[in-house]
């Protein structure tokens, strides 16, 4: 069951006009919210990021926060999985094909649920592989736009090499993954690039940094050079669906000693405990 423009219906019955600007131009934004035991994880933070993306493309939010919370609650109820991820998709709406913003049209609002499959224990124990590529995306990677063709092409590079992710470099600096944020450990310090226009402000990225503060893990938010990435003791990616995943091979070479490192182990343990604490204490935001 999905939600489309005011109606809950089976996904097979959902249709969108061909002149929707999301279809014609990729003119829209999206958000992805993990759900554990039928409880959305850090919902307020995800809705805040959705608002940031809408502001970034100058599109008025079609719903109040309370309305979004009600819709999220309902779509979770209508789907069978206890652990889900919700995909929210908002476009500027339907209008004749013209680059300029149309006036007086209603945004298209779509929401669906899929099963949430987090990394298996075996992968967490062995670590994943990644490749690197030059970051050739546009200059506003902080907006979660549905125009994802550059990310798709970059992500496919890792698929072609049977790797988990493509880690991106711009002007000799680490930015992020094609569909994730990236942390490294260098000199026993956790490092990650700062939030700016070059990276998507990940909610799991925020959780990891909060955990680093809470548990006194040495860390810094600063530019990370390509050399630091390639000589790191540990590399890990974070995302709403992958949570925290260690990268133990990069461009065919071992990262550190080739196994998930102690900082990852510590962060992952704290992340899983934090997640359970949040879920046990969850009450629907008002």
UniProtKB/TrEMBL annotation:
<dbReference type="GO" id="GO:0046394">
    <property type="term" value="P:carboxylic acid biosynthetic process"/>
</dbReference>
<dbReference type="InterPro" id="IPR043131">
    <property type="entry name" value="BCAT-like_N"/>
</dbReference>
<dbReference type="GO" id="GO:0008652">
    <property type="term" value="P:amino acid biosynthetic process"/>
</dbReference>
<dbReference type="InterPro" id="IPR050571">
    <property type="entry name" value="Class-IV_PLP-Dep_Aminotrnsfr"/>
</dbReference>
<dbReference type="Pfam" id="PF01063">
    <property type="entry name" value="Aminotran_4"/>
</dbReference>
<keyword id="KW-0808">Transferase</keyword>
<dbReference type="GO" id="GO:0005829">
    <property type="term" value="C:cytosol"/>
</dbReference>
<protein>
    <submittedName>
        <fullName>Branched chain amino acid: 2-keto-4-methylthiobutyrate aminotransferase</fullName>
        <ecNumber>2.6.1.-</ecNumber>
    </submittedName>
</protein>
<dbReference type="InterPro" id="IPR036038">
    <property type="entry name" value="Aminotransferase-like"/>
</dbReference>
<dbReference type="GO" id="GO:0008483">
    <property type="term" value="F:transaminase activity"/>
</dbReference>
<comment type="similarity">
    <text>Belongs to the class-IV pyridoxal-phosphate-dependent aminotransferase family.</text>
</comment>
<keyword id="KW-0032">Aminotransferase</keyword>
<dbReference type="InterPro" id="IPR043132">
    <property type="entry name" value="BCAT-like_C"/>
</dbReference>
<dbReference type="InterPro" id="IPR001544">
    <property type="entry name" value="Aminotrans_IV"/>
</dbReference>
<keyword id="KW-0663">Pyridoxal phosphate</keyword>
